[in-house]
Every structure is written in C-alpha cells, then in structure tokens.
Amino acid sequence: MFRYVHTNLIAKDPDKLILFYKKVLHCRSIDEKRDLKGDWVDRLTSLKDSHIKGEHLLLPGYGDDHPTLEIFSYDALKESVAPEINRPGFGHLAFEVADVEMTLSEIIRAGGGTLGEVVTADYPDGVEAVLVYARDPEGNIIELQSWRKKREL
Q1: Are the C-beta atoms of 65 and 30 separated by less than 8 Å?
Q2: If 0-12 CB within 10 Å is exposed, 13-18 middle and 19+ buried, where does residue 20 land?
Q3: Which of 17, 19, 33, 142 is deepest in the core (most CB within 10 A)?
Q4: Full DSSP string of 106-117
Q5: Nearest CA to 84 among 140, 136, 131, 138?
C-alpha cells in the first residue's frame, strides 16, 4: 500500500487555527485529536520532553478518513520565519472553491490576510482559472482557485 495521508501545520494557537480551517475552508473534524508525549515521541522528533497536541481535520472533497490537515502545536516552539511564496520547502495549501473573491473575504474576516491580487489566467481548451494567494491567521499561505470555461465575448 502507498497513499498520501496528511499535511502537518505547526501552530502557535492550534485551537484558533483549527477553528479557522473548519469555519472558512470547510475542513471537518473526524475525532482524531492528539495529545502525544513519551519516549517514542522524543525519539521520533529528536526533542527532549516533547509534547504535541492538536487535531486531524478532513480536507474538503475527499472520503471520510483521509487525507487530513494535521494542526499540531508543541509546548516549546522555536521562532519561525514568515512563510514566503518563493522560499524553498513547504509553499502553500491549495483549495478549489466556488467563489474565490467571496472565500478571500471570509479569510480576511476570520483574521487572515491577502498576498498578491486575484487574477484570471487562461489555460488550454477554453478553460480559465481565477486564483489568489492568501494567508491564514498565522501567516501560512493558502491558494484559492476556481476553474471554469472561458466566457465567450
């Protein structure tokens, strides 16, 4: 067996971030909350006395168990570097939505922000995409996208 299971975000305020992803981006709880500590966690993370708490949220548009967005927090957090769209490593989470502008407004009302502008891009076969990058309340980058047939003039 080989399958994609989850993406992990480490949060400063996991409860707030979990609520944001549930409310604004339609992720849902599948009752997979975690409160992890002990020797095996220390060995896995290479951290002494590590303690991890958080929850797995089912990503919208998939089955009843995976893939999930795993939002965790450690008792001891290191200073973070603000995510940037062109920084090597993890870049962004992408969500296909019915209305990019409306979802962006919901993100902003819920404490997130914008990054760049809403754009419309032409793709082959008469398809266009409406796209924007945004930020969740902790600064992680989210891409919103909506696909449709080009409008005839």
Answers
A1: yes
A2: buried
A3: 17
A4: HHHHTT-EEEEE
A5: 140
The fold of the 93-149 domain, in CATH, is 2,3-Dihydroxybiphenyl 1,2-Dioxygenase; domain 1 (3.10.180)
- The whole-angstrom separation of Cα 80 and Cα 18 is 19
Rounded distance, CA 114 to CA 107, Å? 9
Q: Taking the domains of the chain in order of start, what are their residue ranges?
A: 6-74, 93-149
Collapse the DSSP code of 64 into the 3-class scheme (helix H, G, I; strand E, B; otherwise coil) and give the result: coil
Whole-number Å distance between alpha carbons of 55 and 31: 8
Mean pLDDT by 10 residues, the chain (153 residues): 90 95 95 92 92 95 89 89 83 94 97 94 89 95 91 64
Question: What six digits make up the tokens of 103?
Answer: 């979802």
pLDDT of residue 143: 94
Amino acid at site 122: D
Residue with tokens 């992803």: 21
Look up the pTM and report it.
0.88
